[in-house]
Amino acid sequence: MSDDGTLIIGGGIAGAATAWHLARRGAEGVVLLERERDFGAHATAQNAAILRTFTEGDATGALAHETATFLMDPPDGFSEVPLLDPKGLILQLGASGDEELARWRATKPDPDAVRPLDAAELQERFPWYSGPTEGAWLVEDEGEIDVAALLEGYLRGAREAGCELRAGAEVARFIKTTNGIEGVVLSDGEELRASKVIVCAGGWAGDLAREAGSTLSFEPRRRHLMVTSADEAVDAAWPIFWSQPEAFYTRPESGGMLLCACDEEVVAPDECTVDHEVGERIAEKAARLVEGVMNAGCAHLWAGMRTFTSDDDFLIGPDPDVDGLYWAAALGGHGVSCSAGVGRLAAEHILGEDPSDDTARALDPRRSQVTQLS
Ligand SMILES: Cc1cc2nc3c(=O)[nH]c(=O)nc-3n(C[C@H](O)[C@H](O)[C@H](O)COP(=O)(O)OP(=O)(O)OC[C@H]3O[C@@H](n4cnc5c(N)ncnc54)[C@H](O)[C@@H]3O)c2cc1C
After folding, report:
1. Based on the number of CB atoms within 10 Å of its own CB, is 308 exposed (0-12), middle (13-18) or buried (19 or more)?
2. Distant-in-sequence, close-in-space partners of 229: CB < 8 Å, separation ≥ 6
């Protein structure tokens, strides 16, 4: 590869989207390095696949809207299957949620797709729901993402536009000079030189930050998902239901229901294993809020990492201190539904376009909030 190329570390949704945007923009010498044999084997394969543009911040909201537009109308040839099933998202917010919702709704390309839902319609759309019904909203144009098709689209498009995709390539350390980072060394000793290296390593971003000498900090938080056994009473067309006050969400999956109690325990990236007590807590909460859901029993329980930095916003752009080092990381619980925007913004930084709108500034790793706290 050429010394002035770009190495992308991590072949999850963030690395794949960054590769796609870079390659489509004509960047040369782009290599995507993934240590597993398969791309997208970690958080990208373990998430709930929900498109929810109602996020915690304006900047992530903007990237989510950008990605929603991409999912609804992807570029020609990107995917042979629809990337989004807009089955609807019922959002239940607490007493203080209305103001936040009004603010977000005003930023949505189609604000009319969001409307209040009364108890009768909530029951009609999701007949199993047995919890409180106040404060529910229907987001008609959001729903379930086909994450495998999205990842495949980014990877195929990147490869076709000239990006080299390398699985089974683990970055062990960086090549550091007085000029900053100038490449990486793989665990088999192979050296790869490049003028820019971008870390898209999900839960392992912190390990690579320490190795690079970056002051950025990362916190992987474990979250469990459960899927119940198939039950013929489940209607695959039911919407996604998400309650903020109950910290709970659910949607149909594989003939059963996917359930989440929004647990978040800080873990070391190599120790993100299943805790069956959390599974019991999910079952208890689900039994209270969704009548009969646990009758079929648990078919599958797993855990994955949502990774955050000190102010809980994404990190996209150059490292504050280390030249040649870039980040598309700390994507928390929105990395899939923001992926097209994340990849676009990361590519603009790598290409030296110095994006400086409000979104870029809010997520820039050089922002004072993360450089002072880390
Ligand atoms: C339970 C759960 C539910 C979620 N639900 C949603 C949801 O509904 N909607 C949504 O938008 N988001 C959701 N998320 C968040 C979303 O999954 C993540 O934000 C997103 O997948 C992060 O992608 P990533 O590419 O940064 O990380 P990953 O997918 O983890 O990819 C990082 C990759 O880097 C590789 N890597 C690490 N270190 C090295 C190294 N040294 N050398 C080479 N490769 C390396 C890893 O092997 C890995 O494949 C959820 C997450 C979890 C855990």
Report:
1. buried
2. 255, 256, 296, 297, 298, 299
pLDDT along the chain (374 residues), means of 10: 84 98 97 98 98 94 97 97 98 84 92 95 96 94 98 98 98 96 98 98 98 97 98 97 96 98 97 97 96 94 98 97 97 98 98 96 94 58
Q: What share of the chain is helix, strand, coil (3-state, %, to 5)?
A: 35, 25, 40
Nearest to 217 by CA among 10, 369, 60: 369
In DSSP notation, 68-118 reads: HHHHHSPPTTS-SS-SEE---EEEE--TTHHHHHHHHHHHSS-GGGEEEE-
> Which DSSP letter does residue 337 get?
T
Question: Quick check: 55 and 359 in contact, CB under 8 A?
Answer: no
Nearest-atom number in ligand 1 for the CA of 41 is 49
Q: What domains, with CATH codes, occur in the chain?
A: 6-46+148-217+310-373 (3.50.50.60), 89-141+220-308 (3.30.9.10)
Ligand 1 near 337 CB (within 6 A): yes
pLDDT of 177: 94
User: Which residue among 9, 32, 307, 336 is best mutated to probe the pocket of ligand 1, counting the most ligand atoms within 8 A of its Cβ?
Assistant: 336
What local confidence, expressed as pLDDT, does residue 45 receive? 98
Q: What is the rounded CA–CA span in Å between residue 365 and residue 369?
A: 9
Token output for 40: 């997208």
Helices (H), ranges, 6-57: 13-24, 43-46
State residue 374's pLDDT score. 46
Contact present, 147 and 44 (Cβ < 8 Å): yes
Q: Of 214, 165, 135, give the one whose Cα is nearest residue 10.
A: 165
Q: What angle, 0 to 180 degrees and rounded to 10, lies between the N-to-C axes of helices 58-72 and 97-107?
A: 50
Confirm or reject: Cβ of 8 under 6 Å from ligand 1. Answer: no
Structure confidence at residue 94 (pLDDT): 78
In single-letter form, the type of residue at position 213 comes to G
Using the mean position of ligand 1's atoms as its centre, give its distance from the Cα of residue 118 in Å: 36
Q: How far is CA 104 from CA 109, 141, 344, in A?
A: 10, 14, 22
